[in-house]
């Protein structure tokens, strides 16, 4: 899957006209997601965020756009790169030397293809933090959500978040503002008005499912035991960190395109941890 996604992404950058004609991205989103064709301001048949305003690209000057590969839009490709990083960390001992080298090199290439700034930041954080997670109980991941909320509220109190800015701090401010202005009906998921909250993932999830289900899901996922295996602990901490780092600014994580692999990895590591616990002889 990684090799296929990499090859399609490279083809997209090399021949965007062929890629656009083959997938016809604009028509797909107009016909299936209710998008307006005029919103695709970048031109061509690519997704509307295939270019950043002002040419802010990692490879600016090379004539490339933000690639999407099989996901048809760049953010999901960045999410895939993050999930693949968690997979690589969780299965590092099972991968061969060549397998490790391929996963590292191909993930870096995908980050460049999609111009994934948030994804690159999350992956760099994982490279520093996940090795430490081998020694941390997996249930400690439950504290990530309240810590994130506390840091965001603190940042907002000191004026570090800009709810109208077209940057990372602005996106965080938008998500925090959307969460803080929800009324009781929206928090319970029974509001008759459904707001468009693409840039505030957790508010979007709450208004459709309720804050009770959101908190219940978080506790169920974070307090489920994965055992003591280093790879399984890294998978657990990586998954929960990915959730709280992405949901404040985007609901793209809820897309089955990339979430499928993440939940498959979650289930695999949970089952592996249970199997190891069942095979351990009693003291």
Structure description:
By secondary structure, the chain is mainly alpha-helical. The chain is built from 13 helices and no strands. It has helices at 2-14, 16-23, 25-33, 74-90, 97-114, 117-133, 144-157, 168-180, 184-187, 201-209, 211-223, 230-246, 256-279.
In angstroms, what is the radius of gyration? 20 Å
Query: Which structural category do the helix and sheet elements fall into?
Result: mainly alpha
User: For this entry, what is the oligomeric state of its chains?
Assistant: single chain
End-to-end Cα distance, whole Å, is 42 Å
Count of DSSP E strands? 0
Q: What is the domain tally?
A: 2
The portion of residues assigned to helices is 55-70%
Count of alpha and pi helical runs: 13
Biggest pleated-sheet summary? none
Strand content: under 5%
Low-confidence stretches: none
What would you call the shape? globular
The residue-averaged pLDDT reads 84
Quick gist of this model?
The protein is mainly α. The protein is 62% helix and 0% strand.
Features:
62% helix; globular; 13 helices; 2 domains; 283 residues; mainly alpha
List the helices and strands and how they pair.
Blueprint: H1 2-14, H2 16-23, H3 25-33, H4 74-90, H5 97-114, H6 117-133, H7 144-157, H8 168-180, H9 184-187, H10 201-209, H11 211-223, H12 230-246, H13 256-279
Helix pairs in contact: 1-2, 1-5, 4-5, 4-6, 4-12, 4-13, 6-12, 10-11, 12-13
């Amino acid at each position: 899957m990684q090799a296929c996604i990499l090859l399609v992404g490279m083809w997209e950058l090399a021949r965007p006209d062929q890629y656009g004609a083959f997938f016809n991205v604009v028509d797909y989103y107009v016909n299936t997601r209710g998008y307006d064709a005029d919103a695709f301001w970048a031109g061509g048949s690519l997704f509307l965020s295939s270019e950043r305003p002002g040419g802010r690209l990692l490879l600016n000057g090379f004539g490339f756009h933000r690639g999407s590969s099989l996901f048809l839009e760049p953010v999901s490709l960045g999410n895939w790169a993050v999930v693949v990083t968690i997979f690589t960390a969780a299965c590092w001992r099972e991968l061969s030397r060549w397998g490790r080298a391929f996963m590292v090199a191909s993930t870096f290439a995908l980050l460049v293809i999609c111009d994934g700034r948030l994804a690159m930041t999350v992956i760099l954080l994982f490279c520093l933090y996940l090795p430490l997670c081998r020694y941390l109980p997996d249930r400690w991941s439950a504290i990530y959500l309240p810590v994130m909320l506390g840091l965001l509220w603190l940042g907002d109190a000191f004026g570090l978040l800009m709810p109208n800015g077209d940057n990372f701090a602005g996106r965080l401010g938008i998500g925090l503002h959307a969460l803080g202005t929800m009324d009781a009906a929206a928090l319970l998921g029974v509001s008759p008005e459904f707001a468009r909250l693409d840039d505030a993932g957790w508010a979007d999830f709450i208004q459709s499912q309720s804050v009770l289900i959101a908190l219940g899901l978080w506790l169920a996922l974070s307090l489920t035991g994965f055992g003591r295996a280093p790879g399984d602990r890294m998978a657990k901490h990586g998954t929960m960190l990915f959730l709280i780092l992405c949901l404040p600014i985007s609901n793209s994580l809820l897309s089955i395109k990339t979430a499928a692999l993440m939940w498959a990895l979650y289930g695999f590591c949970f089952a592996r941890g249970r199997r190891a616990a069942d095979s351990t002889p009693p003291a």
